[in-house]
Every structure is written in structure tokens, then in C-alpha cells.
């Protein structure tokens, strides 16, 4: 499907109130055309419909007329330069940026990541900026999420065993 056809579908989705579908289509377009700033801008507009300032800031990060509040939210959510590199989903050299401002932003993020890691990093090689994750400390204790997930697994196993028992009993009746 061409970019124009997909954008027409995005418009139709938004008109029909199918915001999640429009967002999904735009994410696909940005993935396919990472250098197209207009697609990033459209995606930011969709995230504003959700009220998600951080994601709107993420997709407007390369624009000069961006919102300071959204950029602050983006930088807070993606706290390290490596996370920001991953979040921006750029591919290729910064020279492919459509504007001087976008190029400066990309260079600044990549440079900050390289300085933090103490080695060169490259937009096309995510492995070069891996290791910049800020991991929550392992408390070693039980968490609510862990208990719920464990309980769900237990219910699934017990349910399958019960069905197996009923199947075996029905064979002997």
C-alpha cells in the first residue's frame, strides 16, 4: 500500500473515531519512512488525542516548533540518551534530516549517548547503544504483578489438568 493510500486510511480512521488504528498505521509509516518529518508530526497529533504528552514530544522532537512541555515529558520518560535514540527510531546518518534543526537534534542525542557510553554509537546499529538501559533494582521480594502473573499461570495449569482428567474419565464411562 502506498504512503498516500495509507494516509487516506489514516484520515478515514480519524474521521470514524478509530484513533488506535490511525496510530498503528502512522507508526508503520514512520517505521518505513523514518526521515519524513510530516509523518512524525501527524503521529504526534494522534498522541495528543490520547493526551500522551511524552509520545507527542517523542514524535515532535526533531521539529523546531515543538512544545516545551511535550519535550520535557519525552525526556523524562526516556531518561537516557540511549533510550532516546531507540525511541526516535531514526535510521541512517543525520545528514538525511530534512531540516538543520532536526540534524542538530539527532547529532546532540547521538553525541550524548556516545559520551555516556564512552564509545562511538551509530543510528543504524542499535547494538552500539545497547547497555544504556536504566534497570529497576531487583528487590528480591514479591511484587503484585508477579503474584497476579503467577496466579494466572496456576489457574491455566489447573484448568488444563482438570480438562485432561475429565477427558480420561469420559473414556472409561
Description:
With 173 residues, the protein is mainly alpha-helical. It has three domains: 1-77, Serine Threonine Protein Phosphatase 5, Tetratricopeptide repeat (Alpha Horseshoe); 79-134, no CATH class; 141-173. 65% of the residues lie in helices and 0% in strands. It has helices at residues 3-15, 19-32, 37-50, 53-60, 68-77, 81-88, 100-117, 144-171. α2 (19-32) runs antiparallel to α3 and α6 (81-88) packs across α7 (100-117). The chain is extended, with a radius of gyration of 23 Å.
Low-confidence stretches: 134-140
CATH topology grouping of the largest domain? Serine Threonine Protein Phosphatase 5, Tetratricopeptide repeat
- The H/E string reads HHHHHHHH
From the N-terminal CA to the C-terminal CA, the straight-line distance is 57 Å
Average pLDDT, all residues: 87
Short key terms for the protein model shown above:
173 residues; mainly alpha; Serine Threonine Protein Phosphatase 5, Tetratricopeptide repeat; 3 domains; 0% strand; DUF6584; membrane; transmembrane; transmembrane helix; DUF6584 family protein
What layout of secondary structure does this protein have?
Blueprint: H1 3-15, H2 19-32, H3 37-50, H4 53-60, H5 68-77, H6 81-88, H7 100-117, H8 144-171
Summarize the structure.
Keywords: Membrane, Transmembrane, Transmembrane helix. The chain contains eight helices and no strands.
